[in-house]
Amino acid sequence: MEISENGFVFSDKKALLNRDAIHRYLSEESYWAKNIPLETVNRAIDNSLCFGVYKDLQQIGFARWVTDAATFAWLCDVYIEEEFRGLGLSKKLMSFMIFHPNLQGLRRYQLATLDAHSLYEQFGFTVIQNPERQMGIVIPNIYTDQPNQ
């Protein structure tokens, strides 16, 4: 699936992804995956439904869904390069992804965000109801506490 709008391309084709650019952003600029190893990024991409945003064949954005394509999807690693922010690309990327055929009819869509609540609320995301029912294992700083591989 691929669409073009105002000189930007939004695609779910993994062959177009620039894994080095994605790794650079996640490991150096993101707050959630500092120092993530390239091998980990590659494994995550290989096992997720991924989306890229491109301008003149340059990767300028990325997002991925961890999903079973039947009941559940977790949205993560969403970013737009800083110089392209403020152009509505995150909103367009969300519109492109949320209507993807592999993500229809699921029982639960989830994500975690520090600062983009207003973006995701436009697409129906709300604060988790009954959070006391949810559990998890969280290993903070997993990539910063280990030498980068």
UniProtKB/TrEMBL annotation:
Keyword Transferase: yes
Example GO molecular function: acyltransferase activity, transferring groups other than amino-acyl groups
Cross-referenced Pfam families: Acetyltransf_7 (PF13508)
SUPFAM superfamilies: Acyl-CoA N-acyltransferases (Nat) (SSF55729)
Alphabetical UniProt keywords: Transferase
Record's keyword annotation contains Transferase: yes
Protein's recorded name: N-acetyltransferase
Native source species: Pedobacter frigidisoli
The organism's taxonomic lineage, starting at the top: Bacteria, Pseudomonadati, Bacteroidota, Sphingobacteriia, Sphingobacteriales
